[in-house]
Amino acid sequence: MVARFTGWVIFIFWMVSMCWLMMHDVIPAWTAQDPPRVVAADWVERYGKESQYGIFDDHGFRIGGIWTTYASGAATDREDEIYLKRLPLIGPMHLWVRSIYDLDGALDELDMAILGDWSPIRIKGEQFGEKFAVHIDAGAIKHRQVFKLERSGAGMISGAIRPFDAMPDLTEGQSWRMQVMNPVAAVTGVGSKFIPMLVKVVGSETIEVEGVLRDCFIVEADRVRAWVDATNGKVWSQEIRLPFGTYTVRLETYDKTMLEGAARAFERYSTTGVWRD
């Protein structure tokens, strides 16, 4: 009798676990939709020409920032300047990224430079039929790696420093696929340079932003969680969990003086590994 009861308990727990797995992982993967995008002509009108995000470590200390400028016409041209004072194992880093989006809001071209205490790394990508072709030039001898991502499987391509940009018109339960570029892997050669992720809108929450309550959707992917304004799609905050710690990226008021200061500080960085404030 006890053995039969134990068997039923195990079976019930197994069924519950399988149902949870189906609801939270398998079904969203099967039903993944196109990622949320902003039509090129609407970008500047909806979100402005400039944005800034502060980057904070798990103790709340500011370790860098992201400054972005947009230009919209027949396409959307986005340029990111990312400065990090310190990252475990690799130290200060500067990323320059130019992204060009087509009329439908899909990534058409990507150009990225990763600078620090190593030989410069350059990553370029472009649409190539049903694929997104990427090549990486790294090291003093310019070792080149070339590979292609399936556009249908890539969904959208983003960066690990700020995985999410504006995401308008979200609904609970929505899911899509994305590829995240990992600059740490590009620098160290350890790990995958592009990480596939399944993104899901898992719920909603009201958060306080600069003294104002904002109704937000909660968007989650593996090791990433973001709070997206339910009204306009702005990403107010996102948390990224990496093997060496968790950091938070928060939307701020654009400050060109801070950008200029970060650029000067990085120029004074030397191979001694000291960031000179």
Question: Are there runs of 5+ residues with pLDDT below 50, and where?
Answer: 2-32
> Treating each run of at least 4 consecutive H or I residues as one helix, how many helices?
5
Biggest sheet statistics: 15 strands, mixed
Please give the share of residues in helix. Answer: 10-25%
How would you describe the overall organization of this protein?
- The protein has a 15-stranded mixed sheet.
- It has one domain.
- β1 and β2 form a beta hairpin.
- The N terminus is likely disordered.
- The chain contains five helices and 15 strands.
- It is of the alpha+beta class and 277 residues long.
- The N and C termini lie far apart (73 Å).
Write a short abstract of this structure.
The chain is an alpha+beta fold and 277 residues long.
Describe the protein's topology.
Elements: H1 2-30, H2 43-47, E1 50-56, E2 62-72, E3 76-84, E4 93-101, E5 107-116, E6 118-128, E7 131-138, E8 143-150, H3 151-154, E9 157-159, E10 175-181, H4 183-188, E11 194-209, E12 212-221, E13 224-229, E14 235-242, E15 245-252, H5 256-267
List keywords for this structure.
277 residues, alpha+beta, 15-stranded mixed beta sheet, disordered N terminus
